[in-house]
Amino acid sequence: MTAPLLPPGGSREAVRRMPDARLALVPDCGHWARLEAHDRFLEELTDFLSGLEA
């Protein structure tokens, strides 16, 4: 069973509605960014978390 490709438009709309949300589109990556693009995932996550207030 495969999941259809979801266009990024829905994600962009969700981010637009959430004040502190960010969207990182990772080319050639499926649903498991933390495994398929480990370094990029950690970079995006670290950048996001470092911008949060304690």
From TrEMBL:
**Protein name, per record:** Pimeloyl-ACP methyl ester carboxylesterase
Output the InterPro entries linked to this UniProt entry.
Answer: AB_hydrolase_fold
In terms of superkingdom, the source organism counts as: Bacteria
